[in-house]
Design goal:
alpha+beta; 8-stranded antiparallel sheet; 5-stranded antiparallel sheet; globular
Length: 478
Amino acid sequence: MAAASVCAPLPAANPLGHARHMRLALSRRTYISTAALRMTRLRVLKVCAAAAETSNGAVSIDDSVRARARNPARSHTISVYVGDESGMINRIAGVFARRGYNIESLAVGLNKDKALFTIVVSGTEKVLQQVVEQLHKLVNVLKVEDLSREPQVEREMMLVKLSVDPERRQEVMGLVDIFRAKVVDVSEHSLTIEVAGDPGKMVAVLRNLKKFGIREIARTGKIALRRERLGENAPFWRFSAASYPDLEGTMPPSSFLASRNSPFNVDVNLSSSGDVYPVESFEDIRVNKVLDAHWGVLYDEDSSGLCSHTLSILVNDSPGVLNIVTGVFSRRGYNIQSLAVGPAESEGVSRITTVVPGTDESIGKLVQQLYKLIDVHKVQDITHLPFAERELMLIKVAVNTTARRDILDIADIFRAKAVDVSDHTITLQLTGDFDKMVALQRLLEPYGICEVARTGRVALVRESGVDSKYLRGFSLTL
């Protein structure tokens, strides 16, 4: 039995299983050899390409990496001073749009003889230098400056509407005091605050307020003025409109009021091929010049139904959108009196706040045209609703040791803040409505205004449902 068991034949192996194992092993060896061959060829190609580029005097792969590290993309603040010319906003925005740049923020400050565009855009130093050269080629561009590496005073301003229940309102008021913000509207379940400061402060405010629930944000673009140097080599050394204390050329209040109530001269033959400045002659809209000191605002409706309309437009935050939106205004001959562009409450969305004169019928047609744009999410005409509006201004005034005290007293009356002081100038920051901006600027003109950087107006609807304009004509019970 034992011999029989020893001598018994072994069971035959499965031929199908053996063949499968052989095929798997062969395919594994083939895959490894093929991958090794591909890696070898890739190394050879890289070496040959590097050698060829080096021999031709071109930049090698390592050199390009080092170049990118030395010249990274960063945020640039560009100031563009332009003269009074039709279509300037569209032309400047078009320079960035044609090169694929997305304008992060845009602030347009209009002054008596020039406009100051403050543009924030990201890019490398080399490419931004090319953009600056292209801006210089535009007609009536007086000066283009990149203030990114200069000592500067930079400020933004925003209105934030929060969803706040009465039991959490005390906590929000604590944050308002910490960030030196102001409450501009209160309702039963909401709170609207105004806050101004540098970009870092804006980020900190939004992070702390996010937990309460942010309904809406209306944010201006960033404005910036170069900090004044000390000594006789400073740009505005001995700059003054009149000697102090014998001020000359002071405008009496009567002439100021007369200038606001008198009709303004408008050249009806201006071309409307631009974006915002001209007005079509057949519409017979008489407003003061867009670069005038008063900015041509019409608050009260006249006999023809013409008044200033405030539009809030939500658009995609993508390159070229601003150029497309302002193109709608230009093709219909609308005269934009104010423009502010900044991030909205949702990521990837920007809010454009603009003021346009027109009748209710014409503005209604304009809103319908804006809704036809692909990148437009929402257009709201808040003119006939109670709303809170604010602007931000930086103004640099020439002073001496005698006049500085008077300037600071005027600033205290208007609740303005001194943000930069030198031995011959002082820079003030002011937030408020349009009339407040004009009043302060008029009072400071005799001392000598060096520079003014001013944003457009931002506005949000008041959830309380009332404001001063809404209450006019009604008797209030005490």
